[in-house]
Design a protein that fits this description.
The protein is an alpha+beta fold and 143 residues long. 17% of the residues lie in helices and 34% in strands. Strands 1, 2, 3, 4, 5, 6, 7 and 8 form an eight-stranded mixed beta sheet that branches. A hairpin with a 6-residue loop joins strand 2 and strand 3. The longest helix is centred in the C-terminal third of the chain and has 13 residues. The two termini are 24 Å apart.
């Protein structure tokens, strides 16, 4: 599988671990799911990056301020299903790219990238994350 450098705003296929799973000792995701790269910062001279991702889920959020709904046309362009979905902005995973949890996009075994979110949607995600700066819960997947 080809793994390109991480780009903020790209949706990737990832084995996500929810915070409640992480706190109970689970270190492997129970399901591969789309996730949005919300931060990618250079880590070392070897070109590795520390990446933060936000999960995409069909489950309606219990806290609407902690989620951004993805537009149907965006889901269609990315090749995702037609069900309503949300980007959860207050339960994040952090890992060193590429990590062990990247997965091939279903139906596209040569890549882990679905594609980019539209810039205006990504700005909305970033603004929501900034507005809730004290609310984020990050699980370190390198542990």
């Amino acid at each position: 599988m080809h793994i390109p450098p991480p780009k903020v705003g790209h949706v990737i296929s990832y084995s996500y671990v929810w915070r409640y799973e992480y706190e109970s000792g689970r270190r492997e995701g129970s399901k591969d799911r789309p996730a949005v790269i919300v931060l990618a910062s250079a880590c070392d001279d070897a070109g590795r990056f520390i990446v933060t991702v936000a999960p995409i889920t069909h489950s309606p959020p219990t806290d609407l301020a902690g989620a951004i709904e993805i537009w149907p046309k965006t889901k269609q362009r990315l090749g995702l299903d037609g069900e309503r979905s949300w980007i959860i902005i207050d339960d994040l995973n952090v890992f060193t790219w590429p990590g062990y949890d990247l997965r091939p996009v279903p139906g596209k075994q040569n890549t882990c990238v679905y594609g980019p979110l539209p810039e205006n949607l990504m700005r909305q995600v970033q603004a929501a994350i900034s507005a809730r700066s004290g609310v984020h819960i990050q699980s370190n997947r390198d542990e």
